[in-house]
Amino acid sequence: xxxxxxxxxxxxxxxxxxxxxxxxxxxxxxxxxxxxxxxxxxxxxxxxxxxxxxxxxxxxxxxxxxxxxxxxxxxxxxxxxxxxxxxxxxxxxxxxxxxxxxxxxxxxxxxxxxxxxxxxxxxxxxxxxxxxxxxxxxxxxxxxxxxxxxxxxxxxxxxxxxxxxxxxxxxxxxxxxxxxxxxxxxxxxxxxxxxxxxxxxxxxxxxxxxxxxxxxxxxxxxxxxxxxxxxxxxxxxxxxxxxxxxxxxxxxxxxxxxxxxxxxxxxxxxxxxxxxxxxxxxxxxxxxxxxxxxxxxxxxxxxxxxxxxxxxxxxxxxxxxxxxxxxxxxxxxxxxxxxxxxxxxxxxxxxxxxxxxxxxxxxxxxxxxxxxxxxxxxxxxxxxxxxxxxxxxxxxxxxxxxxxxxxxxxxxxxxxxxxxxxxxxxxxxxxxxxxxxxxxxxxxxxxxxxxxxxxx
Length: 456
Prior knowledge:
Layout: H1 34-41, H2 44-50, H3 55-68, H4 73-97, H5 101-108, H6 111-144, H7 148-154, H8 158-166, H9 170-195, H10 199-205, H11 215-228, H12 231-240, H13 251-287, H14 297-303, H15 316-349, H16 355-377, H17 381-410, H18 413-420, H19 424-455
Helix pairs in contact: 1-13, 2-9, 2-12, 2-13, 3-11, 3-13, 3-17, 4-11, 4-12, 4-13, 4-17, 5-15, 6-7, 6-15, 6-16, 6-17, 8-16, 9-13, 9-15, 11-17, 11-19, 12-15, 12-17, 14-15, 15-16, 17-19
């Protein structure tokens, strides 16, 4: 915002600090070297990157590779690039204005708009939680033989895991998440190396093709986008970017915080894009030609120990590694989903409830549609995996409702000031991404309605 002299005044937080208990809680060194400073700022990017490696990404990317080989690899990479741009803007909004995205929207729009966007974001969080519930339940079944229905109910207990983690401090939470991410990366890198993918196929898959616009490919492509550029992650990053202690009145210090937060975010998101690329490459190299047989996590688990599919590398050890990584992925995303729920509830409707209560409510709501689907269509992996894919498609449909306000605020000199407003090239790419994604979503809805009418 600007005063009469034209000088930038950083907006005060009208409804309290975002995630007040951890806001400004992490000290950073003064006058330290690049690597030491980067280390101090490393962490929030990992919490954001977790959302890009949840079970929703797994099923969309692996099935995408199994059905269309390397065709959708370009979608994964483009999604990663868009994610970096959007997360940069989200973090910058929080650092510069000292408001998270929910607060910025609520403080600059009327109540009806605020409530509509709040509901859309809550639904997006629930869709994300559905993916975590399904992934964790299937992993528990694969590892320990726990029935899916019981596994779904057991996921409610992860609220106690979250309570334990919150006692450790924010920096330790970041360290745990980074460790789990590196574990997942190592497991899939190992699996891909064993699968001996086609280098030429990978190179060709990096080139976008018009055939992606066909209905079946488009559904999976939008599922990949929705599972990658996740709406709730933009709210999350705009808040946790404020966990570092800095003087918001010193513009040079603010610029330094923006710089190192962006470095942290981009490094972590490059890692997430690599993981998602590995998932698709694994599906293409190991399971292409068996796409119709690999519609569920259980199918993938069993295929890794089946020599007729995973020729030459099949092993129960690989299957177990896959299930362990799946369970770790779902639990990892539990942390970020809860934090985001708290952020949007406080930011949009000024309602603050204990984190454990927020987590319990969100998880119970997410469990209901999973249980209903399991009861009506049977508690099978395939049914739950289909529900998971469409939950990711919903995230893609919900994404523009988050992208557009973020692009507007960070592209406005009124809100960001002359120094921190988006560069023109960033604004062009961001607006083009939002417009194209909206257009693809409209086409997807049209295709789905047309398909439904034809079936009737």
